[in-house]
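Hi R.,

Here's the input for the zinc ion complex you asked about:
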Amino acid sequence: MSKFKKIILIIAPFVLLYLFCLPRQLFRQPLSATLSTGDGTLLGARISDAGQWYFEPAATVPDKFAKCIVAYEDKRFWWHPGIDFLSIGRAIRQNLSRREVVSGASTITMQVIRLSRPDAPRSIPEKLLEAVLATRLELRCSKKKILLLYASNAPFGGNVVGIEAAAWRYFGRPADELSWAESAMLAVLPNSPALIHPGRARARLLEKRNFLLDKLQAKGVIDEVECELAKDEPLPDKPLPMPDKAYHLLERLRAAGGDKAYVCSIDPVLQDRVNAIAKSYFSEYHNNLVDNMGILVRSVQTGETVAYYGNTKGLAPGLRGADVDMVPAPRSSGSTLKPLLYAAMLDKGMILPGTLIKDTPYNYNNFSPHNFSREFDGAVPADEVIERSLNVPSVRMLERYGVPEFLELLQKMGFSTINRDADHYGLSLILGGAEITLESLVGAYLSMARDLAGDGETAESPLSRASIWLTFEALSKAGRPEEESSWREFSSGRKVAWKTGTSWGSRDAWSVGVTRDYVAGIWVGNSDGEGRSGVTGVQYAAPVLFDVITALPSSHWFSKPVDNMVPLEVCHRSGLPASRICPQVDTVWVPDITERPDECKYHRLVHLDAERNYLVNSSCYPVEKMVETVWFVLPPAMEWYYMKNHLDYRPLPPKHPDFDAFSDQGNPIEIIYPQNGITIVTTRSLSGKEQGVVVRAAHRDPTAVLFWHLDDEFAGQTVGEHDLLLRPEPGRHLLTVMDTGGASRAVTFTVK
Ligand SMILES: [Zn+2]
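And here is the predicted structure with zinc ion in place:
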């Protein structure tokens, strides 16, 4: 064997040992969770599992801090191979003369090694090992990377580790925004971190900082003026609390992805505004024991979340329910889904915006909803049903559209918490019978807004742009809901499509608002589900919504998607496609589809006598004297309620005394209550007497006399208002009503 090979054999193990002596990953301690915005603003941070403020390292070391730390700790850092022989020589002399370890002579590279071996003893053999490992680290990493490892893992006093956490902890700013004085103060800390504590150490810290500043000036890094100004800067006071501006968002990210650095799309300025708005309403709501609130704002243009307020955490000590993130929490929808039904029906050509919807008492399988006002309007245009959020017409609309079909639409629009079948929800689906989340509500309106703002090439929602436009138009009108008590006027000074919702028992107050650029959603209530009187969408959620919208940059309204719409002539009064005889016709823009509602059937051609007092026909009146005219006629029950609110509505004149056939006018009687087939539960008074049932009918002729029969027994007669009190026994009954002309109606009902 040659001498050369022998040398190789002897050296090889040492080479291998050297190559593998340094662990792949030097630092393994748990990180703090941090939440930052794209521009580097820290929104929140959590202490790590090791009890430290230890942030995920940034990409680079800030320039000022790099210059400070090199000048202070290791002036030959950029040139030495990990070991600085000049300073070692000095250290050995000092240590030998004092017989103890007083001077480290550690390079920054060696200190990185030392920081990565926190449990190693402070001894001369360890020191030698650190030196060897340091040279190995120099082979592996660039100088910049080594400096970054140092800056990210050095101690900065207390439980603060790394320059990023230190900058936020002591100065409330990111490390790359620190001044020379601030950078210099942080540069002297790792070697004597205890100096940060208040007391006499502070003077020593100031001295060291200024010493470093002088050094920087001497090296020409800063000029004399900069140096003097920097020395005038005071040291920071006690450590600042870490920001916590989006508590629930950070907690949600941590729960899903663990503790690390998260970057989000939140707009820090808007988030501050939203936090302040929530706080300003909280004290008022808290007085009524309404303690929780969620706010979510997303950008129409990017689809990103720009403000996320999960709950009222921290606004009062020990606040109940504030730990629950209300953004993803399932809650009863109230009326918030009604506009989606309106849009869907427009899309299928089932309605036009002004189509009259029946608003009279409704009962189906003993489901009998009422409007918030507990009144009925007889007939209401569909867009007004949405504007005023009327319950009974909405139920009739859903009945027509179909619960399974509407469920399918909602699921397509992202309401993943609406996951039961149609039988489970029934028609109450439209009145808050299903649970949604603030996130899904905002998401659904956002997808609509994005489709409308977009070019029509790609679609996020299953609804057409035309229907979305018409829906937003209906939701942006000024006069508003009846669903909610005591109407309040809101004005943000800009156009907003908005909807409120209130769940049964005043448990949930919702509002959602759409501008051209943002969609904002608000939920107010108690996360434990406790209802409080007076909690409605209008009273509790809409004021918050309008403050949030006011805080947003103003924007123009959407442009009408004319490529997706066509003009159509509709009857002014019924909102249906105009018939040949409709007297007043409007041109409205409607979705460009072939399906349409039938043409107006409410306008009828009628024949009157010359004085226009009676309906006549050829059997009772000379044809040549007849006046032919067009009359707007609603079916009896609709008419009965409609007349009360529409003073211009004139019912048909009575028929002529000699008129013998009313057949062409249909049945003039309608029984309003009870509806056919319902079960009535009667109550007893304190004396044990049955309270009875008030039955009600409507007749087209206001002068008509009606005769009532219960189970073929005469029960009474009525004139004008056809209300009659009956006291039926428990069991099944037949109720019959007749007029003097021979017309009649009958219903069956059951009494319990
Ligand atoms: Zn008409």
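One thing worth noting: DSSP finds 21 helices and 26 strands in the chain.

Cheers,
M.
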